[in-house]
Amino acid sequence: MCMNEYRSKSDRKRGVIEVDTKTALLAQIEMLNKKLAAKTLAEANVSHVQKVRCDFCHGPHANGMCSPEAEAEEANYAGGYQKNNPYSN
Hints:
Elements: H1 2-10, H2 16-46, H3 68-79
């Protein structure tokens, strides 16, 4: 009698659980591939962002962040300007 019970357990279909597991894993891999493709596309769109550029000196920084050296050079240039005045000494 014990032999019959043992055989009845081994007569079950095999592979049903394995097929379901494989199907689930394939579905997860497909989902991850789609997410990766979407993320890659989103990162590619970010590369089109314009770089920051100063409107005053055209340097690679935001407006108002100019270096003091550049301002001093401009002041010296303006200070060296002399009007053509024949009455000045």
